[in-house]
Amino acid sequence: ASTLGGAAAAKGRYFGAAVAANHLGESQYAATLDTEFNSVTPENEMKWDAVESSRDSFNFSRADQIVGHAQGKSMQIRGHTLVWHSQLPGWVGGLNATDLRSAMNNHITKVMQHYQGKIYAWDVVNEAFQDGNSGARRSSPFQDKLGNGFIEEAFRTARAADPNAKLCYNDYNTDGQNAKSNAVYNLVKDFKARGVPIDCVGFQSHFNSQSPVPGDYQQNLQRFADLGVDVQITELDIEGSGSAQADNYRRVTQACLAVSRCTGMTVWGIPDKYSWRASGTPLLFDDNYGKKPAYQAVLTAL
Ligand code: XIL
């Protein structure tokens, strides 16, 4: 196949991009999205601050734009994200435990039901663990007020809200085997053992010189898959340029293809100019939507 989405589909996978609603009106942006990708993740538009900036008052207009566009092109959609410490409106942090629990469950339920039948997989909980060697949970209103059980509660609520969506845990710096990924691994293992609903684990895969593609990336994806969940590369970007960047993208692509339960990969943006990274060129298309060596490497590897 001659496109990323087409080549991935031939291997039974999807190839997605993070999409921002405010770029959809740019013809080259939309054309590249529509030609090359068969999955989208709204980059910011489904986050708590975007859809529920005040309690129980929901605004889905920007997210609906992306969903409408994707559905018009028969693309899959990843929902991102329901419970996260960041991009969380201030009112959430001000609630007591009882109100926070009901606000969390209400948020999950209302957002998922709005998109029922349209979302392939949801990042139910994002980034709940600390970096470093502790393997501990990250401080957040959810962790601090509801305790360790908030993740389980979020997943149980999500399953009830939309039984047909795949439910993922998503995080970064979990791409290789380390204390943080071990902590996520133990969470998933425990959920599977106790019948807590979880279907997939997302590996954000934001790579740069400080955080390179781990040597054991494929093994790490495989050990999660062996627990009985799908794995997905959810926010891929790799700092660099030229053949070095291309080699890294090739390795990531090959790692996903080598793991039968790696169901797809998503790059975190389309042209470099719209990357969330403040500087650098971490994506597959240059500022003029030209295909970079990294693009060719991915397409060839698929
Ligand atoms: C980023 C977006 O790309 C930016 O536009 C926004 O300002 C901040 O969030 N991990 C995640 C994503 O799960 O939601 C983040 O997206 C990048 C890190």
TrEMBL record:
Keyword Iron listed: no
GO biological process assignments: xylan catabolic process
Catalysis: reaction(s): Endohydrolysis of (1->4)-beta-D-xylosidic linkages in xylans
Domain of life: Bacteria
Active site location: E235
Molecular function per GO: endo-1,4-beta-xylanase activity; polysaccharide binding
Keywords tagged on the record: Carbohydrate metabolism, Glycosidase, Hydrolase, Polysaccharide degradation, Signal, Xylan degradation
EC number(s) stated in the UniProt entry for this protein: 3.2.1.8
Enzymatic class: hydrolase
Record domain GH10: where: 1-301
Family recorded in the similarity comment: Belongs to the glycosyl hydrolase 10 (cellulase F) family.
Listed name of the protein: Beta-xylanase
Origin species: Streptomyces malaysiensis subsp. samsunensis
Residues of the full protein shown: 45 to 346 of 462
